[in-house]
Design goal:
The chain is mostly beta strands and about 110 residues long. It is built from no helices and eight strands. The chain is elongated, with a radius of gyration of 23 Å.
Length: about 110
């Protein structure tokens, strides 16, 4: 006698807390901060739901769930052009044009 179990665990979005809160770590699309439910399915029918512990980021393009700390940071501020050189976008101090990083604050230029 054989018994086959067709089922599994899945995460589903319950509530979108903040739309466009970050970027997906897999595809780079916009990701939302969401509350989610874990769902046990047996033969593709939801049997039991329970809430997730902490909010997660969810990409609507590739349907990936990931922690908010892993999302891509916003792009760094760009440096401003001046007639006598460049200024750092973070601290505003003048920087030589050949530098890749600000020598004062360490921000990428």
């Amino acid at each position: 006698m054989f018994f086959f179990f067709v089922g599994g665990l899945e995460q589903q979005v319950r509530l979108v807390q903040k739309s466009g809160a970050g970027r997906c770590i897999a595809c780079g699309s916009r990701a939302d901060l969401v509350d989610y439910d874990k769902v046990l399915k047996v033969f593709f029918v939801p049997v039991w739901r329970w809430p997730g512990k902490a909010p997660l980021m969810h990409c609507s393009s590739c349907h990936l769930f990931f922690p908010p700390s892993a999302s891509l940071p916003p792009p760094p501020p760009r440096m401003k052009a001046e007639p006598h050189g460049m200024r750092c976008g973070s601290c505003g101090r003048p920087v030589e044009p050949e530098f890749s990083f600000c020598p004062f604050c360490g921000a990428a230029l």
